[in-house]
Amino acid sequence: MHADQLTVSRETVRELVDEQFPAWRGLPVRSLASEGTTNAIFRIGEHLAARFPLEPADAESTRRKLESEAEAAGELLGRTRFRTPEPVALGKPGAGYPLPWAVQTWLPGTVASAEDPGGSVPFARDLAEFIRGVRAIDTRGRAFRGSGRGGDLRSHDEWVETCFDNSEHLLDVARLRRMWKSMRELPRSPAGDVMTHGDLIPGNLLLSGGRLSGVIDVGGFGPADPALDLLAAWHLLEEGPRQALREDLGCDPVEWERGKAWAFEQAMGLVWYYAESNPAMSRMGGRTLERILADG
Predict the structure, then answer these.
(1) pLDDT at 3
(2) What is the pTM of this model?
(3) Is 207 helix (H, G, I), strand (E, B) or coil?
């Protein structure tokens, strides 16, 4: 999926686990198929999951990033009624794998990309409850820092233009350009940043009995634009449930449109970038854009 992507085999993971965490030597190691784009995932026994970054990077900066993600996961843990992973350990480079890696608890459930809840109002209300619960966590004076989603929409102009250039053969780019021209001008909330998950895509939401039971990939939990987590409405929900989520959260028109803009920015990158390497992720982006275009 990425240039110079790292390869992580089950044998490598077995060796790393045995060397660095002797207490887990008797636990089976299994590779998991995943729609994720940044980590290879392996289960260790029944209750643990190991995440191995796939993109080459400096080992020290990767360690700091993993430590930051573990801190974020720990801060979110137990703050809503929905389960989230608990950080367990950080592994070191070894056995031919050049980067640090992370271990966290394994959460049961079916990912929303496999059990489409898009037509479910009860699921939409669960999702609204999670977003509301995350927003209620104290920012402790922190504000958005960084270049990713959650800050200034206009700072993404260059990336969105790259997406347009690479999508001429895939999408109605002329119409999408007009839409982004309006979206990028939407003002931020004067109330300031709130705590957000940051990446509420279908592959990060777990279901049990058709209801939201857990949320994973929580390392990006932090302060950002209050509209950021609204991108889930467009990635996951059809019109009726989407309106139920909006009503539950009491979104004003500008906040709602900014949520749509964040979903647009993410989806534009998914369609072309993963067209060959991760078709499921590409299709998700296309479906999101279809919902946005249908909404006008």
Answers:
(1) 72
(2) 0.95
(3) strand
